[in-house]
Every structure is written in structure tokens, then in C-alpha cells.
Design goal:
The protein is an alpha/beta fold. It is about 45% helix and about 10% strand. The protein is built from 16 helices and eleven strands. The strands form two sheets. A six-stranded mixed beta sheet has the order 1-6-5-2-3-4, sandwiched between helices. A five-stranded mixed beta sheet has the order 7-11-10-8-9, with no helix packed on it.
Length: about 400
Amino acid sequence: MTIDEQLDILMAGTAVVIGRDELKERLKLGRPLRVKLGVDPTAPDIHLGHTVAIEKLRQFQELGHQAILLIGDFTATIGDPTGRSVTRPPLSREEVLANAETYTKQAFKILDKEKTEVVYNGDWFRKMTYEDVLKLNSRVTMQQMLAREDFKNRVESGKEVRLHELQYPIMQGWDSVEIRSDVELGGTDQLFNILVGRDLQKEEGMLPQIAMTMPLLEGLDGVRKMSKSYGNYVGVDEAPDMMFGKMMSASDELMDRYYLVLLGEKRDETLHPMEAKKQLAWKITARYHSPEAADAARSDWETRFSKRDLASAALPEVEISSLPEGTALTIVAYLFENVFKIKKSNGILRKEHFTPGAIQLNDVKITDPAAVLELTPESILRLSKKHAVRFK
């Protein structure tokens, strides 16, 4: 490809790029660029929000550049303060490494494993002396750190900012020096940290990395960014029927956004919105599983929700003996959280599920949260239009 053709592909779908002209000049060097994506494995699973930057890394990889997946095994024990209103709870290194194993396995559903360089920032940070840390800190001012919007807001609202959190942008920036990255990818919320890397590279006499940020993906609620903590995510390692069903719960407006950000294409407006959504769900499911699995997931979804034939559907099965003792509300909350990985408050469950009669046991509506459910093997409990389980 020509330089301009590469540039068009790489710039597509980006949010903020500093700087585009620098990237063009770097491409003219005729060598593979070192493209960094840093991830802190604070959880074992990747969701579709994470894949936006990973897909961009794959594009660089397919154009012959060196993809570098940097695992923050050291920084994850601190926790990225970006966008946080409170300090993250610390993780042990054992927890981080266990998460990293599954995280990278899932990332290789997108990246070519054989052509991806995987590095761990603990390899250099654990060798630093306290004198090294002080020298690194001396390169950044307190004013720079407190100019960050999230730190500034916490200070102004009287919430604490712990000193180790101020280290995080410096450490992320030093990662870029260590691996000599030409480009760093991240969400728009990572721009401050990436620019610290540019500054540190300049001080080390290196060409400063291009900062390429990707838009944050809204979760299934259409409001907040996709996150496991918000319960609005679609995990790339979820079962095909779960993945398909979650995608079908997206609003029509969100569907257009997902087509563009996740697939890089526009929705076919000649299709009925329901069919367009089924195709979106099919494509996402096929990408992370297989076309055959996507076909089966669509068929199962249509059996459950289009034909209303739950008895014939492949529902998640739950052992009655595994359920907590208590009321219908207790059991429904348990099933949402443990089977479907969705946390809902008791207030939301009462208002959105019990009051309208969405909760149904063998087609009988359950509107009283305090009711005692009489469960038998093969009973089917519908929790919502999109969620149901079979007992055994």
C-alpha cells in the first residue's frame, strides 16, 4: 500500500490523534513501527469495549507493523486512577498474573499471537531502586498531575487522592521509553497518560510516540462506558447464546454505534431494524466464536423470544440446591448476578421486573417480591424478556 492508503486505514475510527503528520513521516521511514497497547489485567475477561483499541492494533499488525501488548503486571497492582472518583482497591501480583493469562488468551482471538510481542512492565519497575524512582518523579511537576480532570475533581470535592495514584501516568509514560514505542493506542481517557510518555521519550532523545486514541464504547445501557462494574458489558469469552442475546438487548440508536465502532461499517438501512440487529449480533458472535455457533445462537434466540417457545429453548440450567434460601426477590437477584453477570439493586428489580410482571414462573406472573417460589426440576423462570433459566 501507499503511505496515504495506510494512513487512511489507520486513522479511520480514531478519536484524537497527536500527531497525524508525525505518523505519516514515521510511516515513510520504511520500517515496522512499534505500536504499543498497554493493558492492566484488573479483571480476567475482555469485553467489547476493550476490543476497540485491540482491533486498531490488529490493523497495524496486518500492515506489517510490530504489535506490542504491554501487560501492566506492576501498574495493575496500583490501579489506573483515570476516570475514577475514588481510589481503586489494590490487587495482589498473583491475582494480576492469573488475570493476565486469560486476558491475553482472549486478546489473541483478535491479534496474531505469533506476531505479537508481549511484555510485562514489572520486568523493569521491579529492578528500580528508590533513587531511580525519585529521579523519574523529578521530571514531572505536581501542577501537571493535578491538572488532570479526575484528580482535580476529587481534590475540589474533598475526596482523597493517594500519592501512589500520582505515580501512574509517570509509570505508563516510562513504559513507552522502555519499549521505544512509535505509537501508543488507548481510549480517549488515556490521552493525558500517553502524552506523559511523549514528554519522557523526548527527554531521552527518542522520537516521541504518536498518541492515537479510540472512542470509548458505550455499554448496553447506552449511557455509561462499557464496564463489568456497571453490568452493561458483552464479554468476548461469553457463550454464543449469551453474547447474541446481550447484543439483541441494545437499543436501535446504540446498534448504529456498534456497527460503526465494532465492525467498521454502517447499518444496512434497507433492512428492518430487528433484522439489522440480528445481523449485528450474528456478526459479533461469529467473530469471537464461529459462524456455526452464531447460527445456533440466532436460532435459539428466535425460539425463545420470537416464537415464545421457552420449553424448547437451550436455557441456562440451575440446580435448585444451589439457590440461596429466601424470597422471590432474593432468588431473582442471585440469578441475575451469578448466571447472567448482571448486578441489579432490589429497588430496580421491584420496579422494572416484579411490578410489570416480567418475572414469570412457568408462564405465571410473579408480582410479589416476597413470594416463596415453588421450584421443581424442568420449571422455567423468566426474569425478563431477554433472560430465563431452567431448573434441575
